[in-house]
Protein 1
Amino acid sequence: MAFYYQLQSCDNASVIVDAQFQAQQTFNYVFLIYGLAPGQGVGNCWRVYGTANSGQFVYPAADYGLNGCSSCNAPTPAPSATPPTSYSWQFNAVQGNGSQVKPTSCVNCPVTVWSDVQTESAIVCGTKHFWLDSNLTLPFIGSNQYYNAVPGVSPATGEATFLIANDGTVTDKFDCAGNNVCLGPVPTPVPTAPVPTAPIPTPVPTAPIPTPVPTAPVPAPVVAVPDYCLSSTNSVTFEVLGGVNKYVFGGNYGLYGSGTGVFVLDSVSSSHPIAFQNFGITSLLQYDGQYSVGTKTGLDGNVYEYFYGDVTVTVTGDYGRISYECYNHGYMGGQNNLLFDNVACPNLQPPVIPPQGDPSLQYTLSYSDGVKGWPSFYSYFPDWMLGMNNYFYSFKAGNMYRHNTNSLRNNYYDVQYNSTLTSVFNQMPLENKLFKTINLESDKAWSVSLDSDIQTGASIDSTWFEKKEGAWFAFIRNNGTQPAQTKEYPMRSVNGIGRSTSVSVVGTSTTINFATNPLIAIGSDLSVGDIIYFAPPPYSAVEMAGQVTAINIDLQNNTNNIVIDNSISGAVAISLQDGFIMYIKNQQAESNGVLGHYCLFTITNTDSTATELFAVESEVMKSYP
């Protein structure tokens, strides 16, 4: 797949060229790229400046991160004294996107790579032959997959198939019919002349056997020990080390280790979604994340899902030593960089989670003799407390406080808190239901947040309630997320249009055209303000493209398009002309409630005066898919 961007020279902002990448890029990222603008008096440092519709293929020699022009320009890399002789070849796919199954026919090959040989017959199995650059410094990472290939500078039908390892080594070679051509014909054996029998020599007396000399002990192999242990929560940053942009967990980079436990990577950047190579060991190590960008074939040849936001790694046993990688930029320092060692990195105990709120908070519990239990959790945490003469006293920071002496509620030690109550609607838990409304038997309106086993993020602001006959009523609004999460795609507010015929970009406006014969009907459900998404083949990953600003349908004049604003937060440039286009309605305005087998709700009151709450109710109906 190709992605086209404008690159701006770090030395002269007026020099801009169009370039083609193998993966999506982030604006203002800086790369070291050789030979991009010869004769224009600029160096090799380039900043991603904007999107383009075409461009020459480039492969960065180094990644200097966001706004890294100064780092890229100092020092200037010295050119190779004697550049090697290289030859252009064409492959049918970019690195990592080859076939897992040996093909039995040859196809068109549009992807340029470089080799140290010029013909197919010169390819020797077991030898490194392919690189990504003409200087033969960046090996073609084949991921042990099959690639059609043909020598030359222009796309053409392949004339052979190679099985290529991660360092560019050709491990096997086949013709277009799938026949192995690594080995030539077996040579005809040459008859061996008979060897005359020599006379048997007279036996010679044997010398005494010398006493064995003790051998020196073989040194034990060096056992890898983690430099840093993952903690329960780990900040995620990025640092260029040795010319490579690397993931940094917890502020330090090195060999990371863990025992068993749950480990959270905090706020992984959307520019660097991460996956852990746990193929075959999912019973020992699993991972999940806040946001998914979809799946693709990893650098080890297996398919993984990539996440950003808060990413959780759950370890239940000895997974050995594994790698982690970025969706867009390869390993980023993660190759064989996570080691199980519960001696150097003791197992983490499961966290003790209070009944509600953040596990790091402390609570004061109250016991009720009437219910024989602990019904309330208070936000304050005193240094000492006691009851005396029918009054309750507490001590904090050397000061003494007497409780329940004024009308001000939820104020402890001069800090104002909120009242919260969490419960669940779970009648008939085997039935899938729509939770439509919330009714409060209360003298005040409360704000409400709701989550089910299928949908999350629904809410009701306290100002949305209407008071009728002494109670408060409001319908549930499902807020959704933007960009939408994968689990939101099956919702009723999501609709498909079809494959586009062309896409054009002018500034912040993108026009998406659809066929008129045969007709791809945009439909009447699409409205200005809806959010457009697109999916390139094989339609397994979905990206947000922008918000609808205009809908133009005039079939008599062959007009059938929509116009979107591509500058909204989180939008991604549409990378091809014929992607599948879908849209999501405004989930709050189009909300039908919360879908699920049960509904967990939390109500919050921010008043500082006394408030009564008698009951919380919901109007529920059975969902019929």
Protein 2
Amino acid sequence: MKKKIVITGALGYLGAELCKLYSGESRYHKIIAIDDRFVSEIVNQLRNWNIEFFQVKILNKSSLQAHLEDADIVYHLAGITDVPHVKNESSQELEDEIKKVAVEGTKNILESISKDCKIIFPSTHVIFEGLKQFKNDIDEEETPCPILAYSASKVQNEMDIKKSKKNYIILRLGSVYGYSNYSTRINIVPNLFSKISSLNGTINLFSGGRQIKSLVPLQDVVRCLKFMGENNKINKEIFHLTKENASVKEIAKICKKINSKTNLEITKDEIPNPGYTLSNKKLLNTGFKFLYKLETSIKEMITKWSSKNFNENLEYIKKGEKEFIDERGKISNYELPEPINLVGYIESKKGTIRANHYHPIQEQKCILIKGQYISIFGDLLDNKAKKITHLVNEGDLIITKPNVAHTMVFTKDSIFLNLVSGEREHENYGITHTMRHVLVNKEEKDILINSYKFDCRCCGSKNLKRVLSLGYQPLANNLLKNKKSKCEFYPLEMNLCKECYNCQLSVAINPKKMFSNYLYLSSTSKLFREHFEKAAKKYINEFKLSPKKSYIIDVGSNDGIALKPFKNLKFQKLLGIEPAKNLAKIANKEKIKTYNGFLDKNSLKKIKKNADLILASNVFAHSDDLKTMAECMFKLLKKQGTIIIEIQYLLNTLKDLTFDNIYHEHYNYWSITSLLTFFNKLGGKIFRAEKINTHGGSLRIYVKKNNKIKIEKSVKELLKEEENFGIKDFKTYEKFSKEIYKIKENVIKNISRIKENNNIAGYGAPAKATTALNFFGISHEIDFIVEDNKLKHGKYLPGVNISIVGKDKISKKVDCILVLAWNFFDDIKKNNKSLCKKFVNIKDLEKNWTNNFVIF
């Protein structure tokens, strides 16, 4: 049967939660909310729940009567609750006001309701505050002993209700605790202590915290109110509504357990009484069951009120949580920090663009229901910020901060929901809520769709997670012929495969753009020449290589630097494979036979097989199709032959923060963990691994086709070292990313300090210089760059347009040389003292200088 239900004090601590409980029935019953206050947010919520609201004072009998005379159930929750706890906090004026509202207001309600109406009234445990001795399990027959106006008025209310001959239920509440979205009584001990704990404050325990409290959870209170109101078999009764008993000290210890930063301090302050406990035996006999717990409620309050770990990412993805999976499918949950007032359903076709705008106030939240898209975003509040991309897959909730321009490039037919909190009126587009900002044009869209890497090249998994974005960057070694030359920019971002822990770039650029005319000459460096000379001798000795019989191939042979030591030792069967036409020409000129092309299935037909040794030094990261490259190497290899690969070592990159070794030529960033997965899938075996000191820290691995070969302990030791470091823990990568951005802040600040009193020249134009300077946004701070490699003279570093010159072009000493080829700092400083007295390693700029720090 439909009923009219009236809740007075509806905007209060109990009232708002009771309204929420009835919101599911407001389409059937007529629910009336009454309060003398007007709280905009709560009233709006009541309206949305189809609950009528009237602003009425309970002392205004005529206004009350209009709403109560035909009510079936009245929950009388109205009254003054912010009351003194001891006499010295009170005044006669306040005492009179408390009594007047409580007593006269209750009489007005009793006189306004019909004889058939049921009134549910929350009284209080405080009516026993006059007890001088501790008393346990007080039942409903105990005579009240109030002291203050609040408890005395509650006793009077109980008496008046019983005398009224109306149908009633009186619930004497223990101390009500718990979080509410609408209104919380902070002066109740669990709530007060939770607030103090959330602020890392000090909880004072009067008289050691020995006072005992009878407690009851807020949600159980409103459940019990509704239980009593709707139970026709329970009438004209008084119940003690408490769930548990605890000392003040015990409550404080729970807070300390949840937040260890909470301080507990015992004081000698007196307490009004030793406390008492109420018996809930009579209530439990009605069949009512409690559902909520003290520690859980305190944890909720402390968590919600504590400072949050603010997500500093401009845009980030949240996966569904607390998933439930059975034979029917899956349920995923997404917790949102704010209410949603509008949901937009949006369909987008493959190859299209959406957004290209930003929101000045609102956070954008979208859930991708079907399909896939590349999200591109950039911070509009930071003029040095770079564009960043990441991939959004089905089921992802993507959150974009205000004042972050963003664009969606759809790689599949897609459907997503736009979850809006705030205004999104179409006529105000571009005025109040959504501002046009073209971040991605058609040309860039096509580049992204054609070059984006959607799966792991090591294991094929699509479970990739962003580690670091260095923004959009030019191809590191594609130096410009002049300042006005066109420069292409691509995302330079490293992702982690969560399945095999391989790290790779988010895009794979066509290798012909990077390697057809390559300006990096390995032989320019004396250190590299010596490195390969030592390596050649080591391999000859260990694998008993013969100058006349042994066939050696070097993949990605550059100018022949790795094969030249063998040639000098009279080895006859040597072959380099080099895709850069200019470098292959140099090597062939030096009588080192070199095939000009990529190692792929087509070139395999043109290359002699049965190699004893295949070398691949710092090129195994240089291919998008590594599987094909590795398979070709195995096909060229003799049955008992060995493949030796040198790669920049991911572990060193993470440890030493050498992010500038990340550039588009390096598609992949290897650890022994990911390499083992890769070669195991191809039927190869890594049997030895060793660290080498090139490129800021590299790894050399030895691979055979023979699966029965014994794996040396060096492999197991490196695996253990990686695991101990956290190569499988994503927090390791998050820390790395944060530290790289801190480096950026330091470099920008420190180079500005040097520039104040010095002109600056750079030394060395390696790929790492392109990465670093573009990431830092450094351009005009450096006047020019000195470079030993003649192929780079007269060109410009891409993205920052700094000219590259030879030493012969410097007519006078410069104030400061910033060494960009930092791994050769000592040699550069030693060999170029005539150019400058002040040499600074760019790695030193990465430090946080103090005010008195002197770099020179």
Protein 3
Amino acid sequence: MFFSRHEMILAALETPRLIELARVLQISEPAQRQRGQLIDLLCTARYHEFRGFLERLSVLELREVCGFVGLRDTFGDPAELIDRLLFTDGRSPAPPPAPAAPGAPAPPPAGAPAAPPKRRGAKSQARGELGFEATLWQAADRLRNNMDAAEYKHVVLGLLLLKFISEVGPPLRAAGAKPPPTRGFKVPAAARWDKLLGKAHSPQLGHDLDQAMAAIEAQNPTLRGILPQIYQRPGLDAARLGELLHLLDDIPDLGSQGRKAHDVLGRVYEYFLTCFASAEGRNGGQFYTPPSVVGLLVALLAPTRGTIYDPACGSGGMFVQSERYFEDHGGHRGELKIVGQESNPTTWRLARMNLAIRGIEGDLGAEPSDSFMRDMHADLRADYILANPPFNARAWGATALADDPRFCFGLPPDANANFAWVQHILHHLAPRGLAGLVLANGSLTVGGREGEIRRRIVEADLVDGIIALPARLFYSTSIPVCLWLLARDKTSGRDRRGQILMIDARDMGAMLDRTHLALRPEELAEIAGLYHAWRGAPAQEGMSQKTYADVPGRCRAVDLPTLAEHEFILAPTRHVQPAEAANAAPDFAEQFTGLRRELLDQIDRAAALDREIAEALARVEVP
């Protein structure tokens, strides 16, 4: 099942917009046609007609379409966005060839051998280009039928992992056969992807898939408990399951790509997680942190060799981006030790699958468990801690943990776990460690017992920075959130003792769609650059060392006496001074003189109008 670029673009548009475009193409009675018919008819448009369609869209609509089809750079003027949509490599097109039949593929270059006909399920390297994840998602979502997204994600992501394991790992050898390569997983012959694909039309496909998952787990202890065996469940149609296998088979053969296999399938997995989080809405936040927020945390902490810990790791996004950052800056796989914990069983399996697909080793515990009630890494002291714990969680177990040494600054109320997470993270932070966590904005201003805990933590000089973020970044909530940056040693680099960096980033970000916002790459770099300058951290390769200075309207270093005057309220809006140019108050005398002149002019005008009215009335003849 293959969806063209034009189909993907049209599928991103609302039906009224499709009807409008159909009228431009003079399609009869477009309002009476079904959405699928409109898309099929509009796909017959020639190049200049289709480009004309896109030129009718607003910039916001074009950005939404770019995001829908998988283009990661959704900024620029309308012409640039249209070029990216129609030509996914980002280059300007060559002049269009002579007109061909609508929908026909472009002819091959001169002298090139004729391409064999495309069959369903045939692998294509073109699918590895930018945007192919969106094509896969669109097709997979159509196959979902009426299944709930929360259930369907395990069906799809489990098959993705099965494909990866099967094609990267060598098959088990028969007795006496030549030993296979040692890399990869052990895969029984009956569980290999090509064997299962041959059974795609069998009514017993669900049984065969469950058997394959069980066989792989039996041969690979590291995979036990994470492969879903759910394919015989009622309501999961065998025919649609077979279609899904053929669809995922379009991902290029991973066994032939070596290390790149981790990138290809990891990219699909991450894109699918994003789409499932969006489809689940509020519940999607339970397992997913938006990439721009994760990217900001990783850029702020800039992890190098050592241990990275996430006590509420969700689907493992913090680990994936940390490993990517580490390798992009000269690190090697395995030098960054990954430790995590997750209480939700299905989310814990998603995290282990996410790491396995990327070839990343990590200790997420032998089973899912609650970080408060059963701390599986009690002796851990991590160099880096990143976390996006549940916002304002209730009933976290305060009564049972009243004497727990982790809560040395005070036991938070059972009605809100925010400062339980802060103290849990401080407890696990190494003497020179750094931590960053996402919390609701209420943590900055709340009073009572929680306010007292905040005061004690600030007076202990453990808070290194606070960043106010814009609203609508998360799928689980539309409220604005903040980042807490914690450090036990504030003398490394620049001496920051007795001060906290406040950054106001509420004005940053661009709309991904009608309801969700994302931080731009340049904004991530700006925020991280301010924090690195504040810390006096060594400049990254290719960048000059910057000296920290307060920026009106953006950031300010605030000392502890000032915070005490403000009752230890940490909201950056309370402390960051507004930009002078935008907020400078005009001179009162000058302002009053102008207002007085304007008022007198209005009084004179009113008097003139009164005279005109009186004169007009005098001329009226009364019979």
Protein 4
Amino acid sequence: MNTDKVILKPLFQKKADPLTLLLKDIFSDNRNAMSYLGALSIGLGFSQADSAFAEEDVEEVVVTASKREANLQDLPMAVQAITSEELEAKNISDFNDIANLVPSITVDDSGSGNSYFYVRGVSDGGFGNRAGAQASTALYIDEQPLSTIGGNPDLHVYDIERVEILTGPQGTLYGSSSQAGTVRIITKKPNPDATELGFDVEYGDVHDGTPDRSLEAFVNLPLGDSAALRLSAYDLHSGGWLDNVATTQTFTYLGTHSNSDYIELEDDYNSSDKEGVRLRFSNEFDNGLNLDISFLQQEYFSNGSWESDVAEGARKVSRYTPETFADDFEQMSLTLSGPLTDNIDFTFTSSMFDRDIAYTYDYTQYVYYYGYDYYAAYYYDYDYYASTDPRVFYTQFDKYERSSNEFRIQSVTDSGYQWILGAFYETNDHEYQTFYDFTGQLASSITVVDNRWWGQDNIRDDEQKAFFGEVTVPVSDKTDLTVGFRKYETENEFFAQDGYFGYYEDAPTGWVGRTNLYKFGDDGVAPKFNLAHRPNDNLLVYGTYSEGFRPSGINRTTGRTAELVPDTYTSDLLRNLEFGWKSSLADGKVTFNGLVYSMNWEDYQSTRYVYNLLTVAYVDNVGMATVNGAELTSYFNISDSLSMSLMANINDPTMDDDIVDAGGTILGNKGNTLAYVPEKRLIFTLDKDFTLGGKPAYFSLDSSYTGRRWADETNTTPMQSYSMMNVRTGMEFGSGVSGEIFINNANDTRPVLGLYDDFGDQRLTSSQPRVIGLRIRYKY
């Protein structure tokens, strides 16, 4: 069974109308103008009499969010799909670009590969620590989950069939970490019917920065009548725009030091490079079986920091040591699918995901804040030849190994009684090492390994088993009832080592090291109930109760006041009740969908770092929260060459309890708003086709608004609202060649995408400045 099929109308088609017909298409006469306004008012819930539109309907999109093909408008669940045509036309290249088109997604950004995203305001306020809780929203590529603790992989988006965003708990079909939603990136399947190839070349001038450039290419090769191979590759360079500027710091014991004494200061120092290749093979056998094998490899490296220091001014940092970030991963999958009987299909998928991260981070501010230059001063007093350099840098090494296997069978019928039944097994291993090292040589006469002040070496192994199923029963000709479940079991094992001056056991210096092994398990059932009713061919209404969960875990609880910190934390549960509708108006020229939801988040997990309690971060079930909100989506085909969309997400994420740390300190009051989440996000898009000099051309505009958020649960540090706008225009030159001029972040906004207090110094992550660029594309 083909699960990657998409039926749609190309976003931009060759048209015969000239550019001067732009206004005529909207207001060619009074009747068309009133028709447009009438449809808009219907879409927004007001009444309007007769309407007449142009000939083109809003395109039909087939998705596989329910693990079977379904028309997006016929699916009684909240799904937004970004098609391959839209991804290409809007030059979507990474997850932040996706988020700019999805109002229900909020990004907490600390740079590529080090970011989180939240759906529907379900934010635990965590700060990306590797010992933290699992993500509340899952990221998939094809059939495999990719979400990792401490930051999601930043997959480059190229040669992608579509992106599906499933909002609300998806625990039944997608399991843990699909607590608030799931984002699925679906790659293009090889086409056995035609040879295809193409490439894209791009150059971008970054405002007050160094240029961007990229090269992307793909080729599709048929291998006989039923087999094909598809290869895509990319090589990208992102220019820097943050300046590392001079600063001085007066340390407690070692006096005043300037960063210019230790590091070369430079402008635009946060550049990055990303390259990757994806290979996919598929074959359909004579008996109907389909074999699909894919391999993906990506390498990323960046210099400098993506966080600016608020005290230094816009797009400036002041660092004492070099900072780098390397993120390499490989993903492999095998899928075998086909008929078991005339009425039953099966799908088996086995996937592996390996990810290696290595990064360095300037931690000198930590030394200054706590007066830890004492250690360098102490060893200088002990040994005249020791260094008086107060700087400390932080080094992190992560190795993720994730293996997922799923087998499912399902009914073949497109309507009426339908069912799906499956089993899932996954191992998720994470080994991470963290070292805090002084840059200067400590006393050689003291037994200190590699100038190490403190280090840890931890291995976390998670295992999950699950059985799941859904059945849809027709209650009447117009009403269907769906019931689903997921029975899951998790096992966690955590081997932890940490200690001072290079030792995990007791050090010769007298400091105590520690080595511990922790084990914990958990289980549960996540149910789902859905009732869908179609009064007529143009309206679907539905109600859903669903649950999402994150698995339990283990804390490292040795050390000072460790008795106050819980040894384990349990699964947290998100209970969701939503009522929605999907409608087609004005003879199919307008689509207006929406829903309202109320979600109760029980015993939600949150990652904490309380220095006075524990030397490492820990996770706690901190309390209850309620998230009420609404999602609204409307698409308008004003004419056969002009379309627009309006989308909104309204959120009220409220804490139902005081948030108290393990030491009894109140971190957030009942009634406060969950961290990082805006009360509203709005998105507007406009796409116009025209001809220029007899050649097909287009114009595209995307604009988003994100409301004010709070940097943590105390609700004392605001993250101000912002608007972003991207504009592009292009044309086809013939023989498969096209070109476009684009302006990303056209208003040169400096949005606050991430904000935290780094030991008395506020650090802020923002977007790239305005980029004016040129893209040339060729397709055969």
